[in-house]
Task: structure prediction
Amino acid sequence: MQKTIIDYNLVKNILTQSGIPSVGRASIRELVRIVNLIEEQSSTKFIRMEMGVPGVEPSSIGIEAEISALLNGVASKYPMIEGIKPLKTEISRFCRMFLDIDVSLESCIPTVGSMMGAMAAFLVANRTDRNKEGTLFIDPGFPVQKQQCKVLGQAYKTFDVYNYRGEKLRDKLESFLSEGKISTILYSNPNNPSWICFTDDELRIIGDLSQKYDVTIIEDLAYFAMDFRQDTSLPGVPPYQPTVAKYTDNYILLISSSKAFSYAGQRVGMMVISDVLFKRSYPDLKRYYSTDMFGYSMIYGALYALSSGTSHSAQYALAAMLKAANDGEFNFVSLVREYGEKAHVMKKLFTSYGFEIVYDKDMDVPIADGFYFTISYPGFTGVELVEELLYYGISAISLDITGSDRLEGLRACVSQVSGEQIQTLENRLRVFRNNHPVN
Ligand SMILES: Cc1ncc(COP(=O)(O)O)c(C=O)c1O
Result:
């Protein structure tokens, strides 16, 4: 047995002192804290794959627009809750150019990241019908959204979609929806963490069922245009980012700027509500809001109560980046394509040292290379593997906390791993494998 990469006792002490019963079940941010401590005390830089932080610089278009908005004095002014007109205009155009859908300006609303978009969506869409109880998550998924439901005291159900792809998805969804208790369905596409990408046939099934059971779809497009197998980067030119909005008018889209535009730090995202839903009346909303109107309750009920709008200057930044993208002057996808290239190299490395890709197939083809991939190692559960890899200077999260059925797996995020670290990763994987031989 070779020594581990980081001193065994040092890691063990930090884990014991952290007070967290099982580091493999810790939240992403808790794990970040522990890895920071190990890095600091061991003076060893980790291969950090636990958190989805953008790994590329944002375009100067956004930063310059934000600086000039600040110089023009927006910092002292409250923005309108529904968003500044230039941003609403560009979000609406963005929907036309990159999703091939029409939405009016009033239905395009900035939020403090998609995190807040989801919170506001739960606050309104899960309260439209007093006889319904909450959200159905098509998992695996982003753990914090379930935390949001918990914090709100709302119920939720989940299932792992891996074995219910294609036409099988219909029966699986109906088995939940037919009970009549589901208000909303939430999924991310491409999927965090598995990188499954729904086909148009599947989105049509979801859309059809949303009409049949009167359920609102919350489509989380945090990784917009990042299924790099298709080039969806050209405005007004097919193919477009697939969306359920093609198949139902009962939807809320959450379009994050964090990954596609590398603008995570400024906490600005977009919520797009279908025009039909925006104008719809739900008498049961009056239990919580001054009106029965969905869109009005979203803006002057939920978003007002949450933060009274989105950072004024960040709205100008996003408006400028969207305008440049819509005008065909800024190919935002070309900036993030390197994630896919990195995933390709890293997946090869992990598999050559005995790891397996957990969510390995997207329908009947190999899973695409994107922002995340999932791995397992023989003889370990995901929770055990998270902890074990910490001794080798590698951090990732367990699929256990994502609603996955695949408890042997980890989610690895490629964004923070630099090209220069690939050799280090290989060296560490070699030591890991030597210490944990498999046939
Ligand atoms: C699926 C998913 N939804 C939402 C978010 C949060 O996005 P934002 O930074 O816009 O709040 C993330 C971030 O990692 C995510 O992976």
